[in-house]
Amino acid sequence: MTAERILVVGGAGYIGAHTCKALALAGFLPVTYDNLSTGHRDFVRWGPLVEGDIRDAAAVAAAVRTHGAVAAIHFAGSAYVGESMVNPAKYYENNVVGSLSLLNGLRAAGCDKLVFSSTCAVYGQPEHMPIDESVPTVPVNPYGQSKRMVEHMLADFGMAYGLKSVVLRYFNACGADLAGELGELRDPETHIIPRALMTLQGYIDDFAVFGSDFPTPDGTAVRDYIHVVDLADAHVLALQRLLRGETGGTFNLGTGEGYSIRQVLGVIEDVTGLRLPEVVGGRRAGDPAILVANATRARDELGFETRHSGLRQIIETAWRWHLRAHPRRNAPVGAVAAEVVAADVVAADAVGRRASR
C-alpha cells in the first residue's frame, strides 16, 4: 500500500523536520517544500525535498500535483518577535502574503486540507491564565498579528472554497529529537534554552536574561515549554483528523505549567553541571510577562498528550543534541566524550519509553 503524501511547507526547519520524522513513523511520506533560507538541507531525511518559495503559487501547485499530496502542513514564515517590531514589513510579506500565495497554490492543485503552525503570540497579553482558545486574540507584536491574519484567511477560505484546516497555537517549542537526529539550529539563535546551552559551549558571548522586572514571582518572564517531539505528534493527530473527514478547529499546544526564565536556567545548570553568566538586560519589545496554555481542547478532541515535556527531559535532549552538533569549545576531548555518552544514556532511555507506549 502506497503511503499518503503530505506536503510539509517549511519542513527543513526545526519543528517542520521533527514533524516529517513523526509523519514517516506514522506511515506517511512527507514531501518537504522549503526555500532553505532558514531551513537545513540535512534535516530533510524522511522524504523528498522540493526547493521552492511559498510566494510562488504556481510552484506550490506543481509540487502538490507532482507528488500527489493529499494535504499540507504549513510551517514556513518568519518567527522572531523582536525582529517583527523593527521590521514588520518582512513579517507581513513572508507570513501573510506568502501564506496567501500558498493557499492559492494549494487551491489550484485541489489540495483542500491544511494544518497551520500558529502561535500563542496571537493572544497578546491576556489577563487570565491559563489561556484557552476562547480568550480574545489581541496580538502585541507584528509576528503575532501576522499569524492571526493567516488564521482569518483560513476561515475565509474555508467558507468560500471549502478549505478544511486545523490551527495549532504553539506555546514555547523546545528540546530535541529523542534519538539525537535533529535539534534547534537557527542563525541568529534567540530562544532561551539553545542560547544558554550555546553559551556554555562557548559559541555565544553576549548571553543575558531579558527583563527582571516582570510582574512574576522572580521578575523574569514565565512561559509554557513544550517538547518539539510532542508538538510533532500533535501535527500528525491534526492531520489524521482532517483525513478522516472530521471538522477542523483551533487548538492550543502546551503543558499548562509555566516556568520562569530563572527556573529554566537553574535546571540547565543542574543538567549540564556548568554555570551560566548572571547578566540581566532590559525587556524585549513585544514580550508578555506570562504565557501558559490551557490545552484541554487538544486533549479532548485530538487525543493530544504531552509525553516528553517535563522541563528536565526537554533540557537533557537539547543538551545531548548540542554536544553532538557543536561540542564545547576549549573543553578536554575526554570531557566532551563523557558528556555525550552520558547524554546518550538519557536519550536511549527516552526512546525506549516512547517505543513501549
UniProtKB/TrEMBL annotation:
The lineage of its organism: Bacteria, Pseudomonadati, Pseudomonadota, Alphaproteobacteria, Hyphomicrobiales. SUPFAM superfamilies: NAD(P)-binding Rossmann-fold domains. This is UDP-glucose 4-epimerase. Its cofactor is NAD(+). Keywords: Carbohydrate metabolism, Isomerase, NAD. It comes from Ancylobacter oerskovii. The keyword Transcription regulation does not apply. Pathway: Carbohydrate metabolism; galactose metabolism. Its EC number is 5.1.3.2. One of its GO terms (molecular function) is UDP-glucose 4-epimerase activity. Homodimer. CDD domains: UDP_G4E_1_SDR_e (cd05247). It catalyses: UDP-alpha-D-glucose = UDP-alpha-D-galactose. InterPro entries: Epimerase_deHydtase (IPR001509), NAD(P)-bd_dom_sf (IPR036291), UDP_G4E (IPR005886). Residues 6-254 form the NAD-dependent epimerase/dehydratase domain. It holds the Pfam family Epimerase. Belongs to the NAD(P)-dependent epimerase/dehydratase family.
